[in-house]
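dumping these here so i dont lose them again. two proteins, back to back, each one seq then structure tokens. dont judge the mess
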Amino acid sequence: MGGHSLIRKSLLACLVLLVGLAFTRPAVAQNVHSATFFGGALLGSPNGFGAGAGLGISLTRNVSFDPTFLFGRQGGEGVFTLDGSFLYHFHLSDSRLVPYILGGVGLAEYGGHTHGSPIIGAGVAFPVDNGWQIRPEVRIGTHGLSRFTIGLTKTF
């Protein structure tokens, strides 16, 4: 996958997220509670690096749906992923930290082919200041969908 193709796919993913938000019903748009930008290691053989973004859509106090996209390099190949995960947030009464587990599915374009994979993982949100959080997270999947990232999240 060439560099121009990767840039076009990244821009397309951003456009899809923005159009999706613009045309969603107001009730769904009101449930968008956060935006996250992240980067980190793509795990597997070979390893790599990726960066991406996603949204957090509240379904209940403890459950959210988080669609994300990522682009990066793994070995000598470009990687582009789109995924959607359900997160279960553990709101601990005596702590500001919010650990969570996740499960979902994703698609990755890697090595000229598109691959699908289930995803499982876990992370924790560390509140910083004024609605900002730092979120380390690990996800397990295949073909660029396994990753360890650190995210910067703004909650609304």
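---- next one ----
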Amino acid sequence: MRILFVTSNRLGDAVLSTGLLDHLIRTHPHARFTVVCGPVAAGLFARMPQLERIVALEKRQMGSHWFGLWASVATKWWDLVVDIRGSALSWLVPTRRRAVMRRSGGHKTAQLAAILGLSKPPLPVTWTAPADRAKAAALLPEGRRIVALAPTANWLPKIWPVDHFVAAFHALSGGNAIPAVIAGPGETERAIAAPLLAALPDAIDLVGCLSLPEIAAVLARVSLFVGNDSGLMHLAAAAGAPTIGLFGPTNAAEYGPAGPNARTAIAADGRMESITVQQIVNAAVDLHAGGLPTPEKYERRPGTCPTGALEG
């Protein structure tokens, strides 16, 4: 059985779609999957089981990228095409069955579940390899509580002020936690994260130097994640990290973090600077009911990422 899964070019939406993909993997254990996504999201699927191929769709002018994609998949007969983008592609390839996204209300995971007629939205997942988990263990300190902070976003109005992040960390740490600053690759991400790293000189610098499976492995080991509405926020929740997502101008009801240990802190007036440190503390208390948990013992003392770019 062959399944073509067309997901988003955006990291956050692609993370949210992993729950639907995981459902298909579990219900079709002998199927082989081809995943179409944007280059920035390709790393999400690198470790998934039953993977046959990843097609990283580079956008081109006038939508010409769709012609190349069609040519690469139209020569095969598919048993199922699942298209969360609602594109014309799913109607132009030979398949026994199509499941195509139609815009509806509710959380994004509920919208995705409706594609397959599922009554309960499947939660997003992450896939990692032993090497990813070993690298995460090597980067984090032994037996210490780690608070991961993600200060970046793809839109300036979605970014919580740096001094708020610093104050929140000190309020949460109780003097015995270590901050880890996480962001994507590129000069813009580094520039946004730099003031937070300067304000927290003991922080573990995880900016732009890990692949997505490695980041997922790191996030699975942290005591708490606090971050703006972003792809990394969704990845943290999918990895099972206790996650607090920060929302100002964006819709938390539709795009809040989806995971077993996820909460949101929402600005009532839509302005990120209106989110208070106390909201973060309250959410953390709700998540942990008495303090940050101590993670399992790690293999080495803290360090900084090796040189290299975060892979999509």
